[in-house]
Write a structure and sequence with these properties.
- Helices cover about 45% and strands about 15% of the residues.
- The longest helix is centred in the middle third of the chain and has 17 residues, at about 210-225.
- The radius of gyration is 22 Å and the shape is globular.
- The strands form 3 sheets. The chain has a 7-stranded mixed sheet, sandwiched between helices.
- Strand 1, helix 5 and strand 2 form a beta-alpha-beta unit.
- It has helices at about 5-10, 20-30, 35-50, 50-65, 90-100, 120-125, 135-145, 160-170, 175-190, 210-225, 250-260, 270-285, 290-300, 305-315, 350-365, 405-415, and strands at about 80-85, 105-110, 150, 195-200, 230-240, 245-250, 335-340, 345-350, 380, 390, 395-400, 415-420, 430-435, 440.
- The protein is an alpha/beta fold and about 450 residues long.
- About 55% of the residues are buried.
- The chain is built from 16 helices and 14 strands.
């Protein structure tokens, strides 16, 4: 079938066959289909949608548009996790060693930060000597020997996604559930893992701003897994405020290590990691119930096994593992500047994305891929939604090495914190879980 016929078929609301989807993905990846025809099909998908089988077929075609990683030599079920992006979200650095300490094999391919969201690779590179550029063969060895590795994504994985995303970005075709889900899942599936847990964010700092849209995305991605024979579960979590209290690279690593050391037992970041870990342990059969899984994870934190897995992983990838005992080896910015409350009252709301952008202005993130980040700068939060603060009380500390953007960043940060004179209604941390067998809602949206 000619490309114009495929476009017309979707324009008229008909389902595309696997062969038609393959022809499009392969032709566009090879440069045989021009951008204007690809853009026309993308817009038709945005307007007419795709059914579950089409979405799975699109994902599978994108997954196999380039190199795929073969992790079968690990000799066991291999697990992964993915977050749809957030602020103060250091779950990977905690969950990977924590799950490995409970007997799982964790192979995590991560990316760099762009805009208001932090990148796991940038965080890890704040550990002196840590290497993220690891070959697939070495990844297999690290996971087989140590149970855990976090490495950079190879550019050869799912090249169709890279080309399609760039086109979607400039043609107004980003906001489509089948296109979003296939983009996320194609990269995950190309990485070769068998079991994947997803953290789908919702709120002001998330790609999906409403709870219903976040559940819809979670269901779509879990359905893709079911169609393609992968075990996938998702939790829907709040991103109306930073998940952790640290927003920066070395600051994020410090908070992750402190949680692995057994500190911050009431941290929302710790809780989300435990919930993600529960899903992995249940899907792999290591635990039969959430209660059993939680007990295993808590034990690994208490007895130091999770911290030891972190130390082994860092050392195996060339990093200075002494940071697991002495976080000061991560270094610290030269200036710590308190940002204080302009009035007394309750913290009613936060604009998480704006807080992330304030950290980016300080040098903790990048607006363009080629921007250089400063691993030591960022924001250390002191308050959460619902807290009462007095006028002049620190809301956060800015960690700085350069004051050029500090005033503008402080203004942006303060604009993101909304105060009121009465205590706000508590915001749920987790809205529910989506599994292949159905979804469970914890709170009404």
């Amino acid at each position: 079938m000619q490309m114009v016929d495929i476009i017309a078929k979707k324009r008229d609301g008909h389902a595309l066959s696997r062969q038609e989807i393959d022809d499009f993905v392969q032709g566009f990846t090879r440069g045989e289909i021009p951008d204007y025809q690809a853009a026309a099909l993308l817009m038709a998908i945005v307007l007419k949608g795709m059914d579950a089988q089409e979405t799975a077929d699109l994902t599978d075609a994108m997954t196999h548009s380039g190199q795929t990683v073969d992790l079968s030599a690990v000799g066991d079920v291999v697990c992964d996790k993915h977050s749809t992006g957030g602020v103060g979200d250091t779950t990977t650095l905690i969950l990977v060693p924590l799950a490995a300490a409970c007997g799982l094999k964790m192979a995590k391919m991560s990316g760099r930060g762009l805009g208001h969201t932090g990148g796991t690779l940038d965080k890890l590179e704040s550990i002196p000597g840590y290497r993220v550029e690891i070959s697939p063969e070495t990844l297999v060895q690290l996971v087989r020997d140590n149970g855990a590795a976090i490495v950079g994504q190879t550019q050869a994985l799912a090249p169709a996604d890279k080309k399609l995303y760039a086109l979607r970005d400039v043609t107004g075709t980003v906001e489509s559930l089948p296109l979003i889900a296939s983009s996320v899942m194609s990269k995950k599936l190309a990485a070769g893992t068998d079991v994947i847990v997803l953290d789908v964010k919702t709120g002001s700092g998330a790609f999906m701003h409403t709870v219903e849209d976040s559940f819809a995305l979670a269901r779509t991605m879990v359905d893709i897994g079911a169609h393609l024979g992968k075990r996938i579960a998702a939790i829907v979590t709040d991103m109306d405020q930073p998940l952790g209290n640290s927003i920066g690279n070395a600051l994020d690593v410090r908070e992750a290590i402190e949680i692995l050391q057994g500190r911050h037992v009431d941290s929302p970041l710790r809780e989300v990691c435990l919930l993600l870990g529960e899903q992995l342990l249940r899907m792999t059969g290591k635990a039969q119930t959430s209660v059993q899984a939680r007990a295993m994870l808590e034990q690994a934190l208490r007895n130091g096994d999770a911290l030891e897995k972190m130390r082994v992983m860092i050392q195996a990838q060339g990093g200075d593992a002494r940071v697991c005992e002495d976080v000061s080896l991560l270094g610290q910015a030269s200036i710590i500047h308190p940002v204080v409350a302009p009035q007394s009252g309750y913290v009613a709301r936060m604009q998480a994305a704006e807080i992330g952008m304030a950290a980016q202005m300080l040098g903790a993130g990048r607006m363009k891929k080629e921007d250089v980040i400063d691993p030591l700068v960022g924001i250390q939060m002191h308050v959460r939604v619902g807290d009462f603060v007095e006028k002049g009380q620190p809301l956060a500390d800015f960690y700085l090495n350069d004051t050029a953007q500090a005033e503008q960043a402080e203004h942006r940060f303060l604009q993101a914190i909304v105060m009121q004179d009465h205590k706000p209604v508590a915001v749920p941390l987790v809205f529910g879980v989506v599994r292949a067998e159905g979804e469970e809602r914890f709170f009404d949206a």
